[in-house]
Known about the structure:
Layout: H1 3-10, H2 20-49, H3 62-71, H4 80-94, E1 99-103, H5 109-125, H6 128-142, E2 144-149, E3 158-161, E4 166-168, E5 182-190, H7 191-199, H8 221-267, E6 290-291, E7 296-306, E8 310-317, E9 320-326, E10 329-332, E11 338-341, E12 344-348, E13 350-351, E14 357-358, H9 361-383, E15 386-389, H10 399-407, E16 421-424, H11 427-446, H12 463-474, H13 478-502, E17 507-511, E18 519-523, E19 584-588, H14 595-611, H15 619-628, H16 634-646, H17 653-685, H18 690-711, H19 716-727, H20 752-755
Antiparallel strand pairs: 1-19, 2-3, 2-12, 4-5, 5-7, 6-7, 7-8, 8-9, 10-11, 13-14, 15-16, 17-18
Helix pairs in contact: 4-6, 5-13, 7-8, 9-11, 12-14, 15-16, 17-18
Amino acid sequence: MDYASDSQAQAEPEYEGLELSQYTGWWQEAVDTYAPARAQHIRDEEYYDGDVAGDGYGHWTRKQLQTLLNRNQPPVTRNFICRKVNGISGVEQRTRSEPRALPRTPKDQKAAEIATDCLRFIKEKTRWSNIKSEKVLEGVKIGFAAVEIGGAEDHVPVTPIQWKEFFFDPRSLAFDFSDARYLGVGKWLDLDVAKATYAGPEIPQPQLPPQPAIQPQPMEPALQMQWAQMAQQTLMAWQAQVQQIQQAYETEVARRQKIIETLEGTAEGQGSDTMNADISFEDRPSGTWCDSKRRRVFIVDMWHADPKHGWYRCVFTGGGKLFTQPSPYKEKDQWGRVRPVHPIQAFSIHVSKDLWRYGEVRGMRPAQDEVNFRLSKKIDILYRQQLFYVPGSFEEQDVEAVRREIAKADGVIAVRDINGFKIEKNLDVAMAMDAAMAEAMRFLDLEGANPELQGRGPSGQSGRAILARQQAGLGQLGPIFDRIYDWELRCYRAMWSRVQQFWTAPMYVRVTDDKNAARFAAVNGAPVVNADNGNAPQRPEDGAAAPAMPPQMPQGGPMMGGAMAMPGRPQEQETGPILAELDMDIILDRAQEAATLQAEQFEALVQLAQSGVLGPPNPETARMLITASALPSKSELLDMLDKMAAKPQGPTPEQKAQLETLAKKIEQIVAQTNKTKAETAKILGADIPGAHADAALTSAQARTENVNATMTELTAGDALALRDFMQAGGGAAFNFPPMAAASPPGALGLPPSEANGPPPF
């Protein structure tokens, strides 16, 4: 019985998603329900941009500009909103933190550093800082922002999503869109770009496996039946493999051709010819799915949650569905279960009771309008003036001519009675307008990045007072930064999930946060070069620092940085951890909440260290000060301090001077000793008469006593200092003169302790 064909016949058919009508219905629901809110998002963006075109539009509507034109009143704009939004974004940039992985088990302690290196490698590779700045600014302006985090074999692509192209379930209430049934992107694409994006390149012809070689038929009749069965099974297996490859190729070709035909049909106007989308989705407002003049199509890329199959992706346009596919991305939920997820990570700043999402601009718009309106009206009032006169006061009774002359800077008016008229400037009204405008400007100044947060305040404040005011000003931005922090944390956790899922081959992760040398972390079984996983800088022979090179696969020989390979013993190469097996918690190193108290404690410790209360400078004092500081890289500084303490330290300048003096004394003693021994040997070996021999012997004994007296000048402290210096690897090269070669055991034939004095060492 062919169990394979039977199981294939009874298998559940492939799930192809929902009907197209369901997807288009969700799309229209998102567009129609949220259209009024999106119109306000456009106004928020216009308030931030201001009068960019120079036509007065921006903060003013078309209707308001027409009214001002009819009054001959100038439209005036002072854009405070742009400065306040940029200030909030700048504060966020100053409070950024680095991702860090924490192990969940003790055995993953060392691997946590590698996981941290992987996240920081992705951060540098994707230019995450620039993407985050863009999305934070967009979120503060509009009220929400989103990115798409994909997965690949050697990197994690991060694609920013423009807010005008992002749509979501309008009934979603959560700040992180976790309760949205569907969300996605809708945008215009040129036809050739759409084909390259969704259809991909042409599929090459598959390489079919060669026909297997079959052994010759045996001569024995008893084995011929077995040979025939074996040959038949081999050929059937090969044919099945070829057929499977060919079917897969034909399926992919048909799938690609369907996508191309659907896109081309939509570009020609086939299928649904209407699209009820608001203007925020369209860079060419037309109400259709295609732009036949430029050959463009509008494509909706939607992710939706299916209760049975999890998250699914559907890409469709006016001509129909391009394709549907299950989500290829997997993550662990809060109970540790692996579930399919969508790749979009989004956040909102505020959500109203009507489920409208909005940013900080929405609350500053009324005050900005008040400043613009009052300033425009104030200027108009200052240009206007009222005339009060007694009939007959002017030579000419044409009041309109008098009004025109009064409006002129050099107007001339003929009067009969100078006291018969009065010109009123309405300065009191202008002053009242100025006071009301100042109140609105004060309100805007307190919104967002307020003076306390920017460090502006009364002059003569101490650093502690400025820091305290900044912390107080930061309090009102707490909800904003909490949303941003939660979004960034979710993004890093999604990146780590992509790493564990897609990075399966042995590789090296380069970490560029080291200013002196690049660091390389081995992962997924790649061989480790040295004990610290390739992170220690290499030192060439000339002593200059050189960057650590990426480790190579071992070609035999001793293992670098590890134990020396012994002959006859199998070599064991240390390898990097398997990323998919690591169990990590991803966090962000946030600044201390009580930064003022920490700064005060650090300042007090520095003063104690400078006063000498903590004793002379030593590694323990330095460790205490670094631990108490608010430095962002304290752990790295402490590691450097440990490495410095482990290395042998050279002598101080004072110790070098003492050792040089000691070396000179030793050289003099050795030279004098050699001279005395040589003269003594000469005396003993010469044939000298008695009187002259006695005199020479007496002189030699005197010089020997002088040598002994000089040797006693070397104190025990000097000898210990010299010994410590030599043991510490100081490497002092003393050029001692050579000792006499053929000298007797002692001068004058006596033991060394009696004749030559104590030995130099």
